[in-house]
């Protein structure tokens, strides 16, 4: 129990540092892309940020819904990415935490900041001052649209993730295969326990 708690604290501290770094990177990139662009281009950038959040949320849900068995069969056939897919399912909690919470939440925060910039640009280009009623109206409207797109997109993504969890995670596994085998960057420890074994222990 103590070992499990220490392991959880270690993971939480590690993911906090990763979140801090990634949030800074996302903010710098979005600020750089938005600087000097028109509000139309800014809206496209906001949409892309929202799509990134939806994409990673879908992958995170797929990881928790996927079963190991199909990937073991693929690994027996020596299909590239199958072993990595097994590791994803065995580390589904951490993988989902990274995709859904880290990338997903960062995307939400950055899209909100980018939306505020776009609203300001719209107001200024139409001749309205910062803090005007028009800017307030556009801010409420634009923020509502972004929120609606995010929620509906994640809803569709979750449905697809549950129905097509195996092919989705296999494609992610193929990407990790390139990263781990070709680029020699290890992302998962090889001692993860299978979901089936964990379920037996709980019983």
Structural notes for this entry:
The protein has 203 residues and is mainly α. Helices cover 83% and strands 0% of the residues. α2 packs antiparallel against α5 (92-125). Mean pLDDT is 84; it is low at 195-203.
Q: In summary, what is this structure?
A:
Helices cover 83% and strands 0% of the residues.
> What portion of residues is helical?
over 70%
Q: Could you tell me the radius of gyration in angstroms?
A: 20 Å
Main sheet makeup = none
- Stretches where pLDDT falls below 50 for ≥5 residues? 195-203
- Helix tally equals 8
Structural class by helix and strand composition: mainly alpha
Strand content: under 5%
- The helix-strand sequence is HHHHHHHH
Span from first to last CA? 17 Å
Shape: elongated
The mean pLDDT is 84
- How many E strands? 0
SSE diagram, text form:
Blueprint: H1 2-34, H2 39-65, H3 69-76, H4 82-90, H5 92-125, H6 133-163, H7 165-182, H8 195-202
Helix pairs in contact: 1-5, 2-5, 2-6, 2-7, 3-4, 4-7, 5-6
Overview features:
8 helices; about 0% strand; single chain; disordered C terminus; about 85% helix; mainly alpha; about 200 residues
């Amino acid at each position: 129990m103590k070992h499990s708690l220490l392991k959880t604290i270690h993971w939480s501290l590690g993911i906090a540092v990763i979140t801090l770094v990634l949030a800074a990177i996302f903010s710098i990139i979005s600020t750089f892309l938005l600087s000097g662009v028109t509000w139309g281009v800014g809206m496209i950038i906001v949409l892309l940020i929202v799509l990134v959040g939806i994409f990673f949320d879908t992958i995170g849900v797929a990881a928790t819904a996927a079963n190991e068995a199909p990937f073991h069969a693929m690994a027996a056939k020596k299909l590239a990415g199958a072993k990595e897919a097994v590791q994803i399912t065995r580390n589904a909690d951490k993988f989902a935490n990274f995709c859904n919470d880290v990338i997903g939440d960062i995307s939400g925060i950055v899209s909100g900041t980018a939306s505020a910039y776009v609203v300001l640009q719209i107001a200024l280009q139409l001749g309205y001052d910062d803090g005007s009623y028009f800017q307030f109206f556009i801010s409420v409207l634009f923020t509502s649209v972004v929120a609606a797109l995010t929620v509906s997109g994640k809803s569709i993504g979750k449905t697809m993730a549950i129905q097509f969890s195996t092919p989705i995670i296999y494609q992610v596994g193929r990407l990790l295969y390139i990263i781990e085998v070709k680029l020699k960057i290890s992302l998962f420890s090889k001692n993860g326990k299978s979901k089936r074994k964990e379920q037996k222990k709980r019983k």
